[in-house]
Amino acid sequence: MGPGRLAALAWLVFTTLSSTAAIEPISTSIAVGMAAALTGLLAAYPNLLYFFQECCRDEWVSLNATGLKVDLEEKLFGQHLASRVILKAVTGFLSHENPKKPLVLSLHGWSGTGKNYVSQMIANNLYRKGMRSGFVHQFIATAHFPHAENVDVYKEQLQQWIKGNVSSCPRSLFIFDEMDKLHPGLIDGIKPYLDYYEHVDGVSYRQAIFIFLSNAGGEKINKVALDFWNDGRQREEIQLSDLEAAVSLDVFNSKQSGFWHTSIIDKNLVDFFVPFLPLEYKHVQKCVREELKVRGKAVNEDTVSVVAKEMTYFPKQERVFSDKGCKIVEKKLDYYLED
Ligand SMILES: *[C@@H]1O[C@H](CO)[C@@H](O)[C@H](O)[C@H]1NC(C)=O
Ligand SMILES: CC(=O)N[C@H]1CO[C@H](CO)[C@@H](O)[C@@H]1O
After folding, report:
1. Quick check: CB of 181 below 6 Å from ligand 2?
2. Which residue ranges are tagged as binding site for ATP?
3. Which ligand 2 atom sits closest to the C-alpha of 163?
4. I need a labelling partner for 35 at 20 to 30 A (CA). Which of 60, 99, 100, 189 fits?
5. In the chain, which stretches have pLDDT less than 50?
6. pLDDT value at position 1?
7. Distance between CA atoms of residues 78 and 281, nearest Å
8. Distance of CA 59 to the CA centre of its chain
9. Which of 290, 337, 284 is nearest to 313 (CA)?
10. Where does the sequence pass through the membrane (predicted)?
């Protein structure tokens, strides 16, 4: 049955239901009759249910590659590298029928540079319900797993969740925020799911997507960007190879990074390290314009500069990069628009 006929059926059910509801009180026999009709309908057309309720099928889970490309190009500012890598990684992975391992992306950079934003873009273009999809699972290290002494309990729980979630939908998305603050024991706990195994305890994880977000490497990335700026070079000239050192060994040699303690890195379980560059004044302006657009407000350049100028920029003397990226643009704008 095609979507058109499904929609027609759905409409029929709804109009019948609502017209019945208008006649008060609904007699029991009508209600029973309705229920029977609905049950019959669902028995005849089991797909009808999927029309209303999210399920792990193409109607609800399928990549809109154009949508992702457009979002990355038009709404993510100042990230020529991240934008390119993400698009390639995600579309490449999702076009493979039988990937050998799940997709594992590790997003690195200063706060407010777009790591969360990009994760949302992926979710929005993969699931019809976007971040509200039951197949998207977000964990924030300090919020979900705050106490180091409970690490064994967390680990068991997290493994159960991942297993349960992937069993009900292989195309599940797991986002781990503050990955650098995640206990090494927990990182070890998720490692088996990232690997090349065909099955782990009878479940295949190869269709799943894992995204790790962290500030680890942010300072090194910032330094590379600043060096380019000081040399009078365009930031768009920065190549992945210029940042390789920043997001590989150096990151993981810093003791504060949980990654360092684990073998995720040596085993090459991360498919792509994605660097996010620090944002300049002009990028913050773009964030403000975009936020105004999203809110349906006219884009007033005075507002744009006032908000962008309220951010603090580093290093102290040159004042090139916003130290919170675009993170607090929304809040600043709330404050400004209220007056
Ligand atoms: C995919 O995204 C494009 C661009 O945002 C949009 O115009 C199109 O309607 C989307 N397609 C589907 C099937 O949602
Ligand atoms: C079936 C199952 O284990 N579902 C879990 C999926 O993950 C969430 C956390 O995001 C758990 O709350 C569910 O219990």
Report:
1. no
2. 109-116
3. 3
4. 60
5. 1-4
6. 44
7. 10
8. 20
9. 284
10. 32-52
Examine residue 25 and say whether the peptide bond preceding it is cis (omega within 30 degrees of 0).
yes
Under CATH, what is the fold of the domain 65-275?
A: Rossmann fold (3.40.50)
pLDDT in the model for residue 336: 85
Ranges in the chain annotated CATH 3.40.50.12190: 65-275
SS3 content of the chain, % helix, strand, coil (to 5): 55, 10, 35
Distance 119 CA to ligand 1 centre (A): 18
Q: Per the structure block, which two tokens stand in for 315?
A: 């290093």
pLDDT at residue 17 in the model: 53
Query: Residue 254 in contact with residue 280, Cβ under 8 Å?
Result: no
Are β-strands 136-140 and 173-177 bridged in parallel, bridged antiparallel, or unpaired?
parallel
- The confidence score (pLDDT) of residue 63 equals 97
Please report the pLDDT score of residue 184 as a whole number: 86
CA of 129 to the centre of ligand 1 (A): 14
Pairing between strand 103-109 and 272-276? parallel
Q: Which two tokens stand for residue 112?
A: 């407010």
- Which token pair is 335? 């404050």
Residue nearest to atom 1 of ligand 1 (CA): 67
Q: Are 127 and 133 in contact (CB under 8 A)?
A: yes
CA-closest residue to ligand 1 atom 14? 64
Summarize pLDDT for 95-109 with one digit per residue, the tens: 998 999 999 999 999
Global pTM reads 0.85
